[in-house]
Write a structure and sequence with these properties.
By secondary structure, this protein is of the alpha/beta class. The chain folds into two domains: about 240 residues, TIM Barrel (Alpha-Beta Barrel); about 70 residues, no CATH class. Strand 4, helix 2 and strand 5 form a beta-alpha-beta unit. The longest helix is centred in the first third of the chain and has 19 residues. The radius of gyration is 21 Å and the shape is globular. The protein starts with 5 loop residues before the first strand and ends in a 7-residue tail after the last helix. It binds iron/sulfur cluster. The site of iron/sulfur cluster has 11 residues, from loops.
Length: about 350
């Protein structure tokens, strides 16, 4: 019997490309949505042939800009998923969205079709910063979309980017206070990074120093009314993104659509998807365990210390460095607050892949 798999569906279209964006997406004024729906449905059938019928704890439509998708296309895909797999009423169904691409009526229609969590790309509450980032919407558009999600009664979250050229600790404190004022229950705070191939990478931007970035990062935790549950994610307890938590915890997931990653578990053997939506290859247990340590350690609850993870862990390091890393009451290895600040080093020191197969 196939174990439950989470499902990620990539929607690779945007109205235009933002200046910092290295995601797999392309600017397209009028995507061929019928072709997109057919291709997605074929991939769902492909995975049904391989895995059979299984339980689906979460479905995440990411992008790109999934909110550009006509609701009819979304309905077609959801219907197909419900037909082929076990998708019950508890399934978390997230739609990533950008302000300006979805109005009240469209949001209501998505909600009626099954979306129960909206992730909004707000990025900033400052119109000048939005324009610098190459965003096509205003802060007001973003606030209106968050308010519409609240009226719909669904869970919602907002993404923000900080650490723009000229940003200081006072900017991040201002942003966190604005987030507190609208009482968000979940937000993601991403440091601006200059990704190769993006318009920003070609500019000679005067980025904040590493020290300043670290000060801003620490100011978030001090100012925001939401506890951190992952390096870049903050939520009221119980409002975390289940999909991401499951993936970070090492649960299997299927990626549908070009550019989508996936980790599939068949008869206790792990497979890595190759990014074209259909092909996959066997993974070494040690490689999969290392991935689980890397993503799990980014969460505050840590990585579960099961047999597979135990094989690659340097327990000596954990016992000798209790100020950085510890074993929790629920049998997980987690970084301490201090350890979180030097997480890359901690992960490097607790993993030893040479012993595992
Ligand atoms: S809307 Fe999102 S995916 Fe699209 S270009 Fe901007 S950052 Fe990239």
């Amino acid at each position: 019997m196939t174990v439950p798999h989470n499902i990620y569906i990539h929607v690779p279209y945007c109205i235009s490309k933002c200046n910092y964006c290295a995601f797999f997406s392309r600017a397209c004024a009028a995507p061929d949505w019928d072709a997109y729906a057919n291709k997605t449905i074929n991939e769902i059938d492909h995975w049904t042939n391989i895995l059979g019928r299984f339980d689906v704890p979460t479905i995440f439509f990411g992008g790109g800009t999934p909110s550009l998708m006509p609701v009819k296309v979304f309905e077609k895909i959801i219907q197909k998923l419900c037909q082929n797999f076990n998708v019950d009423t508890n399934c978390e169904i997230t739609l990533e969205s950008n302000p300006g691409t979805i109005d009240n009526d469209k949001l209501n229609a998505f909600t009626n079709a099954g979306v129960n969590r909206l992730s909004v790309g707000v990025q900033s509450f400052d119109d000048k910063k939005l324009s610098f980032l190459g965003r096509r919407h205003s802060a007001r558009d973003a606030i209106n979309l968050l308010a519409a999600a609240e009226r719909c009664g669904i869970r919602y979250s907002a993404d923000f980017i900080y650490g723009l050229p000229g940003d200081d600790v006072s900017d991040i404190i201002k942003l966190c206070n604005e987030i507190n004022n609208i009482a968000l229950k979940h937000c993601s705070m991403y440091e601006l990074t200059l990704e190769p191939g993006t318009p920003f990478a070609k500019k000679n931007l005067d980025m904040p120093s590493n020290e300043k970035m670290a000060d801003m990062y620490m100011a978030i935790e001090k100012t925001l009314n939401l506890p951190r549950y992952e390096v870049s994610n903050y939520a009221v307890t119980g409002s975390e993104c289940k999909h991401n938590l499951n993936v970070w915890d090492g649960e299997p997931y299927i990626g549908i659509g070009r550019g989508a990653a996936g980790r599939v578990l068949i008869n206790n053997v792990w497979y890595e998807q190759l990014g074209d939506g259909v092909q996959f290859e066997k993974m070494r247990n040690a490689t999969r365990a290392t991935e689980r340590v890397i993503t799990g350690m980014r969460t505050v609850r840590g990585v579960y210390l099961d047999t597979m993870v135990k094989k690659i862990i340097n327990m000596d390091y954990i016992y000798k460095n209790p100020e950085l890393v510890h074993i929790t009451d629920s049998g997980r290895i987690a970084a301490t607050k201090r350890g979180m600040l030097v997480l890359d080093d901690v992960v490097l020191n607790i993993t030893r892949t040479e012993n595992a197969t």
